[in-house]
Amino acid sequence: MSFLGSLFKNPKYQAGDPRKPEEIADPDVIISPNTQLPNRIPPGQTRTRKWPVLNAHGTPEIELGSWSFEADGLVAHP
């Protein structure tokens, strides 16, 4: 299966439009008054129906035998 094929079958992908605030009947859900605004998206931004793909190539392979990690600098215990 291709990467894009798996993306569109992903349950996190929003296939339709989001529900309108008046369609949510759960009393425990807090709905901001900002959801009622006609133009909620800031200038220069667009609405997405999916999570952004930050790395389409996966995790790089690392040789753990030669890999090390060190935390130093402004830390209490390097």
- Total strands: the figure is 0
Order of helices and strands: H
What would you call the shape?
elongated
Structural class, by secondary structure, is: little secondary structure
What's the alpha carbon Rg, rounded to whole Å? 21 Å
- Termini separation comes to 44 Å
Task: Report helical residue fraction.
Answer: under 10%
Low-confidence stretches: none
Q: Average pLDDT, to the nearest integer?
A: 77
Main beta sheet: none
Oligomer: single chain
The share of residues in extended strands comes to: under 5%
Distinct helical segment count: 1
Describe this structure in words.
This protein is mostly loops and 78 residues long. It contains 1 helix and no strands. It has one helix spanning 3-8. The longest helix is centred in the N-terminal third of the chain and has 6 residues, at 3-8. The model has no long low-confidence stretch (mean pLDDT 77).
